[in-house]
Design a protein that fits this description.
about 270 residues; Spore Coat Polysaccharide Biosynthesis Protein SpsA, Chain A; alpha/beta
Length: about 270
């Protein structure tokens, strides 16, 4: 009988499941959910940011890159729990995007999503764009916004400028881009690493420059239909900027034609 208690104890110990049985199974690296940083370049977008924040999925990290706003944009961003950082490289959208890309690469996110902070882009489209990017094997996805809505919300002059750009893109890189001056992008991490060192833009030149360098570097990019809405607040797209768009379009068309003639572009896109 002296050995019987020890036998019973051993049986009980074997009957108790190990601690790991009560813990969730660890995921392999391949099963980890992809992480997303949502980049919002902003200049005096306090009210728009408040409205937009209600639609941004909680699972996304958010960084607001502020171009010296004089309203409460930074305070609103921080009150929402977003990172809010000052722009580098100068004041303007291009500087804001480049600053946000720097911030992205310092973290460990898988995808960088870029939308306008003025409420015109819909955060709900980011998830679909990422799925499209994964399924198609692309490196970058650009949003295609409805031209009729752009005409209605942005005015005739802006719509005319934007209608000229797709034919120029075919001339420049040999393929038509439906909405070259889009505010909506999703980048793989590898694409940001590849394109950021080449960027020098400060203002709205960004769209033209990033397309040129993606094409030149052989980064695979495509387009995905996204929603477009009336912005909240006053537009930054002045008549001078509309004219500058023609200059930027001509500038990068010339660069592209030069590279096609000399054979220096990798041209995978």
């Amino acid at each position: 009988m002296s050995g019987r208690p020890s036998i019973i104890i051993k049986q009980l110990l074997f009957a108790v499941p190990p601690l790991k049985a009560f813990l969730p199974a660890a995921r392999s690296n391949n099963e980890m959910p992809a992480s997303v940083l949502l980049l919002l370049p902003a200049l005096n977008e306090e009210k728009a940011l408040q409205a937009l924040s209600k639609e941004i999925p909680k699972k996304y990290s958010v960084v607001v890159v502020d171009s010296q706003s004089t309203d409460g944009t930074v305070e609103v961003a921080r009150s929402l729990g977003y990172a809010a950082i000052p722009v580098s490289y100068g004041r303007g959208k291009g500087s804001g995007v480049r600053t946000g890309m720097d911030y992205f690469l310092k973290g460990r996110w898988d995808y960088l999503a870029l939308i306008d902070c003025d409420y015109s882009d819909d955060p709900a489209d980011v998830e679909g764009a990422i799925k499209f990017l994964k399924d198609s094997g692309l490196d970058v996805v650009m949003g295609i916004r409805d031209m009729r809505k752009q005409h209605r919300f942005l005015g005739v002059a802006t719509a005319v400028v934007k209608s000229v750009m797709p034919p120029l893109s075919r001339l420049a890189i040999g393929r038509r881009i439906s909405d070259p001056v889009t505010g909506f992008y999703v980048f793989r991490r590898s694409a940001v690493e590849a394109v950021l060192p080449s960027l020098r833009c400060v203002d709205f030149e960004f769209d033209f420059e990033v397309i040129y360098h993606m094409w030149r570097l052989g980064i695979r990019f495509g387009e995905y239909p996204v929603n477009f809405r009336r912005r909240i607040g006053v537009t930054k797209f002045t008549h001078l900027l509309r004219l500058k768009h023609f200059y930027y379009a001509g500038k990068y068309t010339a660069f592209s034609l030069r590279d096609r003639i000399t054979g220096t572009a990798k041209i995978k896109a």
